[in-house]
Amino acid sequence: MALFKAFINSPVGPKTTHFWGPVSNLGFFIAGVADMKKPPEMLSGNMTGVLCVYSALFMRFAWMVRPRNHMLLASHALNESVQLYQLSRWAKGKG
Question: Cβ(45)–Cβ(94) under 8 Å?
């Protein structure tokens, strides 16, 4: 119980944006995985490219902020990987 209470009250616990930011960012990853079933013609190259840049920038932010936010880094790394895959599918569909 003490370990759970320590997590709840920690600087990166569920009472902070250090917790809820990464949780909400997982929505981008889930949407990207769901889009894998769509044909490449339905993907937006512009939006996918923007999501790649967004996640790359925020991975650096998550690493540099104090306290270091490993959950945010992981959620953006997941999103970056799925968006790069989607961008490659879109590019192959165009060529």
Answer: yes
**Selection from 25, 71, 23 nearest residue 51 by Cα:** 25
- Tens of pLDDT, residue by residue over 35-79, are 999 999 999 999 999 999 999 999 999 999 988 889 999 999 999
In whole angstroms, what is the distance from residue 55 CA to residue 92 CA? Answer: 22
- How many whole angstroms separate alpha carbon 32 and alpha carbon 54? 14
Cα separations (Å) of 3 from 10, 17, 69? 10, 20, 19
Tokens representing 49? 């490219």
For the packed helices 17-34 and 45-64, what is the interaxial angle rounded to 10 degrees?
A: 150
Q: Can you tell me which residue has the tokens 């009472």? A: 15
Q: What is the pTM of this model?
A: 0.84
Handedness of CA 35, 40, 42, 45 (dihedral sign): positive
